[in-house]
Write a structure and sequence with these properties.
Radius of gyration: 20 Å
Helix content: 10-25%
Largest sheet: 5 strands, mixed, barrel
Order of helices and strands: HEEEHEEE
Distance between the termini: 50 Å
Strand content: 35-45%
Strand order of the largest sheet: 1-2-3-5-4
Structural class: alpha+beta
CATH superfamily of one domain: Nucleic acid-binding proteins
CATH architecture of one domain: Beta Barrel
CATH topology of one domain: OB fold (Dihydrolipoamide Acetyltransferase, E2P)
Length: 140
Amino acid sequence: MKSSLLRFFALAMVISILSFPVFAHHGNAAYDTENKITVKGTVTQWFWANPHCVLQLDATDSNGQVVHWSAETENPTTMSHSGWTKTSFKPGDEVTVTMITVKNGKPIGRIAEVVLPSGQKLAGRVIPQLPAYNPDSSKQ
């Protein structure tokens, strides 16, 4: 009996340890959550797939150079509740994307909102950054 309980506990610990990267995957640590940017560009691809939908677009920067952006949303099920569909975008569509970008400066972001050629707005999902923990604040 003790042996079975010990094996169960060891298995539970291994599963717990191995599942930590899954939770870390959904964090915002890589993103600059304090600043949003807006990019106008042309859709090159739209991926409606798990684990995240991805919108790829080409936009021209201030130097006249084409920048290939990749911006993610949540999974298709979550996005469908906000009006997004598999056919929301097609290559060649002109869109305006508001997003938070990654901290390393690469043209990658998480969508806050997309404005379609028709003027329709699709809300993205940006996870807000939690305030920093301040142990002194609990003493007040």
